[in-house]
Amino acid sequence: MHSILIYYYFFTITFFSSFNDGWWFAVHIMDLFIHGNYIGNDPNDHSMKRLRTYLLRNYADTLMSHCSLWQVGADYLDYCDSNRELLELYLERIPIKTEAEARKIIYLAKKRNLDNLVKTVSNIMTSKALSNGKLGTALTWVMISRDVRFADEIAERWLKDYAQHQKMEGLEIFKNMGSCMLVSDKLTFVGKYCEFHKLYCEGDLKNASSLLISLIASGLAPTNFQIIMLVDALPLLESLENIFSRKETYQLMKCLEDVIMNKDNKDTIDNSDRVNMIRLALVRNLSRSFVIETGDSESDGEM
């Protein structure tokens, strides 16, 4: 009798599978039979489990191909065998037209620990943003993907643009990077350079100068950017307070000589007034710091 009932349920499910309703009825009648303990009770009988998986996959396939129901399809796939691989394949094929759609896919992928998919989608959106010249948007996607190649490209583009126009508004996009700046050395440099300007604007000249010196010493700046950092040092060198020590002034002098000796900078610095201004400011600061530091050491000796 039990076998007859099983056959009846199996026939019923198979019959409803032929309905042109996108497998909806067959999937849910199957679940009713299983949860009602009418079928699927025998641990040695895997036929019903295979049938249920088959129905779920087909129904999920119908949902995943729908422009607004694919998120529901992802939930159904959670109950299939090999669901991670299937879901990743489906999500990869969804055409991403908007940022909102991309974020929905990333949300589903993160929820199911599909890290490769998260990075793939983020990189696609980063590439689109860079193609449209939206560095700020590209940076938000890099914060998700942590992709070194794109992080370097964003930093290089920003440095090139800043070197040409030196617009302070461009600093805003790197304001809240947090740990994202550690993704690549170039992005770290840009983040720290923005931090220097922030400290300078806040009047924290001592910390700003220390950060500028460390950036110059790091060697991460492009050759055409070193002269910009030296120009940034000018108001600090001319400050009433002695900001740079003698040792730091020597570091700035070495940087200036490196800039002058670099053939790539030849066209921009030959007979440049700003080079002469920097050189004069460095000499003045060296003289001042020498007097101050010598005086301090003599005072310490007398004590």
TrEMBL record:
GO terms of molecular function: structural constituent of nuclear pore
Pfam hit, one: Nucleopor_Nup85
Example GO BP: positive regulation of DNA-templated transcription
Residue spans crossing the bilayer: 6-27
Localization annotation: Nucleus, Nuclear pore complex
Keyword vocabulary terms for this entry: Membrane, mRNA transport, Nuclear pore complex, Nucleus, Protein transport, Translocation, Transmembrane, Transmembrane helix, Transport
Superkingdom of the source species: Eukaryota
GO cellular component: nuclear membrane; nuclear pore outer ring
Family membership noted in the UniProt record: Belongs to the nucleoporin Nup85 family.
Annotated function: Functions as a component of the nuclear pore complex (NPC).
Complex formation: Component of the nuclear pore complex (NPC).
Protein name per the record: Nuclear pore complex protein Nup85
Organism: Larinioides sclopetarius
